[in-house]
Amino acid sequence: xxxxxxxxxxxxxxxxxxxxxxxxxxxxxxxxxxxxxxxxxxxxxxxxxxxxxxxxxxxxxxxxxxxxxxxxxxxxxxxxxxxxxxxxxxxxxxxxxxxxxxxxxxxxxxxxxxxxxxxxxxxxxxxxxxxxxxxxxxxxxxxxxxxxxxxxxxxxxxxxxxxxxxxxxxxxxxxx
Length: 176
Hints:
four-stranded antiparallel beta sheet
């Protein structure tokens, strides 16, 4: 049975390097047999249908990107239902007055809560860890929060990828 997934690609199309053409990526994934392949924005959001389990699918998508574009791109996956749950949880929505400064960092596995608790705190912001998601409300923006330059992979022991609330909302809409 096929599952609708949202694949979140980490750190692509942020500068002159690490460029991935979304039209070409859709072609590559369709040619590899994934169903209903669609992208949203150029920041690495892919929707697709697959019968593969999460870990195997993430590995296969990363391998396809490596083969086609020559880039090592971590892939974090959520099912359509899991994305809807992320949106429904909304633990900081009562604080967030600007959806572009409210975001979620998605991890392939839950970071250690003790490491999250010991992580640097954003100035004037709030964060809540819910399983494999870290919700962030940064009213002054990520770069002005005092944590913009933190190497989060090292601090938390697991690499994630961040999407603002507008993107999370749209991805959920696109899975329906």
